[in-house]
Amino acid sequence: MKLSIPVVETIQKRHSVRTYENKSLLPQDREALLICMKELDNPFGVPVHTYIIDKELRSDGEKLGTYGIIKGASTFLGVSIPDTKLAPLAAGYEFENLILLATHMGLGTVWLGATFSRDSFASAMKIPKDELFPAISPVGYPAAKRRLIENLTRSAMKASSRKEWKELFYQADFRTPLTKDMAGAYAQPLEMVRLAPSAKNTQPWRVRKTENAYHFYANYKSGLSKEEKTIKQVDIGIALSHFHQTALELGLTGAFEQMALEDENLPDNIHYMISWRFTE
Ligand SMILES: Cc1cc2nc3c(=O)[nH]c(=O)nc-3n(C[C@H](O)[C@H](O)[C@H](O)COP(=O)(O)O)c2cc1C
Q1: Of the residues 67, 97, 111, 132, which should be mutated to test ligand 1's pocket, given the most ligand atoms within 8 Å of the CB?
Q2: Cβ–ligand 1 contact at 111 (below 6 Å)
Q3: Phi and psi dihedrals of 109, rounded to 5?
Q4: Does a structural domain hold residue 205?
Q5: I want to staple 95 with a disulfide (CB 3.0 to 4.6 A). Which of 45, 75, 79, 178 is the partner?
């Protein structure tokens, strides 16, 4: 379902917030988030669960459970999924939609897949024992000024920059870059993929265009742990949210589908995820 917000504008506005004003979420903002959470869905048919909890702030405003990375926020969102094949894509898709909705409300967020105490948040959010719990995000009012640690984190990951088109988007095989001209109406959905956030800003998405479809792949070294692979797939789900929501905003039509592409001779480290078969 199309989010009822200006998608391209919101994607361009979003950035991670790790320093918040020291104040609780207003009841009307919390209520609006709850309504958004109830309406979330995904095009992969996976039941995704989202959570919202309030945690006490310590007197110095430091948040327990986020290793000093987050300051000031006292409300947190979370996401859990069953341990099934397309579930990490669906988690990325739905939770990013929630992040975009919060961004549109003027709230700050940041995906946290690693720098939080998973056990304490899992018990506070009552995550079912048999579900995967890939990420949380604080949600609150961005502080006027970032802290030093946040600036250092951002510069270490070059958080404000992204790879160029020619490194991400291809046509036919993985040797010929796809230009914006060749992408035509899909230039904007792909540009929104390019701007997506990813764990450590690694931007693992690669997209290949064929006659009637855009095929999405994840770029990661073989031999990752299951948790690491799950996060890469969540990153692709985030990219799929940006791609799909932008396509819907532009009135482009199509559907996601897992295609049998076994004859493909894929480059090393390129793993097939899903395709968008377009109808115009
Ligand atoms: C799945 C995922 C997991 C992330 N995990 C963390 C984390 O554990 N700690 C953190 O400080 N930032 C985390 N981030 C935030 C990224 O570092 C950030 O999105 C990226 O550097 C791009 O910056 P931007 O969001 O401001 O565009 C994560 C992002 C994603 C998408």
Answers
A1: 111
A2: yes
A3: -150, 165
A4: yes
A5: 79
105 Cβ below 6 A of ligand 1: no
Note the pLDDT tens digit of each residue in 16-73.
999 999 999 999 999 999 999 999 999 999 999 999 999 865 555 545 688 889 999 9
Q: Does 135 contact ligand 1 (Cβ within 6 A)?
A: yes
Pair 174, 272 in one domain: yes
CATH code at position 265: 3.40.109.30
Which pLDDT tens digit goes with each residue over 31-46? 999 999 999 999 999 9
Instruction: Please give the Cα distance from 45 to 90 (Å, whole number).
Output: 8
- Tell me the H-state helices in 126-262: 148-156, 165-168, 180-183, 187-194, 226-249
Alpha carbon of 234 to ligand 1 centroid (Å): 12
* Domain of residue 245, residue span: 165-278
Q: In terms of pTM, does the model score above 0.90?
A: yes
Q: What is the CATH number of the domain that holds 52?
A: 3.40.109.10
